[in-house]
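User: Design a sequence. Structure:
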């Protein structure tokens, strides 16, 4: 009787785990459908950082990536650029150069 009860309990646990695995697999397959990746070489201008598309048109890197992925961009200044621009512009906003 004890063995039968343990067997039933194990079968229930197994079914529960199997259900969770199927559910998680479905979630992962759904997530995979939403993944968009850039592949291969991306031709980028070494000066202005614009990217050339397959039609030969040049666009800002943010525009290029946003059009081909689900990525969005925010902008800020890295510490090096912040120092550079702070040196270029005075406290009153006038250009020091």
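Assistant: Done.
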């Amino acid at each position: 009787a004890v063995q039968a009860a343990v067997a039933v309990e194990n079968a229930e646990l197994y079914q529960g785990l199997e259900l969770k695995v199927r559910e998680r697999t479905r979630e992962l397959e759904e997530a995979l459908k939403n993944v968009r990746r850039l592949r291969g070489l991306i031709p980028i201008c070494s000066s202005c950082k614009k990217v050339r598309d397959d039609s030969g048109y040049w666009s800002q890197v943010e525009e290029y990536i946003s059009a081909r992925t689900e990525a969005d961009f925010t902008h800020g200044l890295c510490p090096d650029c912040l120092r550079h621009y702070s040196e270029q512009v005075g406290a009153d906003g006038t250009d020091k150069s």
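The longest helix spans residues 2-33. The beta strands are 51-52, 58-59.
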